[in-house]
Specification:
The chain has about 200 residues and is an alpha+beta fold. It contains five helices and seven strands; from the N terminus they run H-H-H-H-E-E-E-E-H-E-E-E. The protein is elongated, with a radius of gyration of 26 Å.
Length: about 200
């Protein structure tokens, strides 16, 4: 019932950009815009000289070289971005797709997509946090949260309640979906899943 009411523990897929839009986006960098502007100024200078009866092909050569540099660098940036996206997709396939939970007083291994609010999740060293979890028990539990909060150093978790003025990102009794356990083990209860998790926002 919880799975039906709250939906699966999956994030909505990001909107796919077309190759054309990704390519155009490469030229939003100020340096590329500067080179493009310089190329058009060279073209304008050529026509100004041409209107006054002088032929200055050097301006056209400069414009051609500048535009060629911008085009080549744009294609290289596009290739690198597409390659990085492919690596990320392949990496996601390697992530564990199952987690160990306690339901009806029994340990069960379930698909991460089937985890619901209220599940008790067993966290062990090397495991990825499958949902936003309120920590209930810890044994030297340390969580790497850089992918979610940007914090570079791992967080040593605690089961103690956080002070009222402490934000959810600074709280040490919550583990976020997408982070992973680097050391120790613990037990937590799922408080948010899927599109409602902190990492999604």
């Amino acid at each position: 019932k919880r799975l039906r009411d709250g939906g699966g523990n999956v994030l909505p897929p990001p909107k796919e950009e077309s190759i054309f839009h990704v390519f155009i986006r490469q030229f939003h960098f100020k340096f590329w815009l500067l080179l493009t502007g310089a190329a058009f100024l060279s073209i304008a200078a050529y026509f100004v000289h041409y209107a006054h009866g002088t032929n200055e092909p050097l301006n056209l050569y400069c414009a051609f070289i500048l535009l060629l540099v911008v085009l080549v660098m744009g294609l290289l940036s596009l290739w690198q971005e597409q390659k990085a996206r492919k690596v990320i997709k392949n990496f996601k396939k390697l992530l564990p797709s199952r987690a160990i939970v306690i339901r009806d007083c029994e340990e069960k291994e379930v698909d991460i997509e089937d985890i619901v609010v209220g599940d008790l999740v067993i966290i062990s060293s090397g495991s990825r946090i499958p949902a936003d979890i309120r920590i209930l028990q810890t044994n030297c539990l340390t969580i790497e949260v850089s992918e979610v909060t940007g914090q570079t150093s791992p967080v040593e978790c605690t089961a103690e309640a956080a002070a009222p003025h402490v934000s959810v990102f600074d709280s040490r009794n919550v583990a976020f979906k997408g982070s992973y356990c680097t050391e120790g083990d613990g037990l937590g209860i799922v408080i948010r899943t899927g599109k409602f998790t902190v990492g999604h926002f």
